[in-house]
Amino acid sequence: MKKISLGVTYMYFILFLFLVLMILLVLAYSEPLNIKFIFNSTDADMHLAMVWLRDIKINAVIKELRPYVSVFVFDREVMSRFLKKRKGQGGTITALALHDTDVRISYGLNSFAATGLISAALGVLGSVGKIDHFEQIPEFLPADEYLKIDAATKLNIGKTVSNMILLKSKLRKRRKNMDQSNSVQSNLTENVDSLFRSLENFTQREGIIGKAVIQGDKTFLPVVSITVGYGGGNASMKGQAGVGMGANANTGTGALGLGAKLCTDGIIVVDKQDVSLLPMNSAAAVSLVDKIPQIISGMTQQKQANQQTQGQNQGQNFGGMQS
Q: How far apart are CA 177 and CA 91, in angstroms?
């Protein structure tokens, strides 16, 4: 019986927590957080007060040039501490679901020009920003310069939390896409480096002076020039719409183009002790064509001489065997 009663109690407790969470969720969307901000440069006072459901209050003031926050529940302080500055929270402001925003600014400066410029800038800010009611009261040539800000607004907690979750999801996917794009760029760079290392090895070995062609007493060395051009880059494309929350995420692709041209600029001819260069321009090409019969004749004579030498060697070997 005790085990059954404990199980029933646990089930009721879970059900109670679920109901409480559901009630808080409904209240988060239906009951706004009332926010009031006051700043007075004359008294060096800056105060931020937030109230939710009348009995949950949050007060923020500046102490020792740092924001100090106190939380009260049913008029009892449950927490008070200095806030720590967090990095990477700049986009949180865009997630705030504010409405019924009322801003009143009064200021006085000793400069007509500065007062006029600030008045124009605040007018633009009041018309562009999400402010339902905006009022500014400038004072020209006051006894002492001052600035007073009195602002009030309402924050929908449920919508703000939802916007922050969506914003973090988008930032996470954007960071993932950036990592993928950087990976593609890194692979592209590695491929280009590998390609040009191979090209460098080729030019160092055979790219400037080609392989020697030996024919008899003559050695022919082609002189080669190499012209290389390349280009690389990447592009980002928006994802297809309607694919979850990351529909606007960017994806990256990389591309590489390469072209090379090899030209024979000339031929180095080594004939025993004589070395000559035949440049491969139009006149040199004609000269080389004129010398082709002579080269072929020399190659034929060398071949016949080699055959005669081989025949004599074979005859000597045969005579030695008979003796």
A: 18
Q: Could you tell me the pTM of the whole model?
A: 0.55
**pLDDT tens for each residue of 147-177:** 999 999 999 999 999 998 998 888 888 888 8
Number of residues written out for the chain: 323
Residue type, 275: V
Cβ atoms 248, 238 nearer than 8 A: yes
| 32 pLDDT higher than 80 | yes
- Backbone phi, then psi, for 92, in 5-degree steps? -65, -30
Both tokens of 262, joined, read 């090899």
Dihedrals φ, ψ of 7, to 5°? Answer: -65, -40
Pair 41, 50: CB distance under 8 Å: no
Element housing 288 (H / E): helix 282-322
Helix (H, G, I), strand (E, B) or coil at 216: coil
> How far is Cα of residue 228 from the mean position of the Cα atoms in its chain?
29
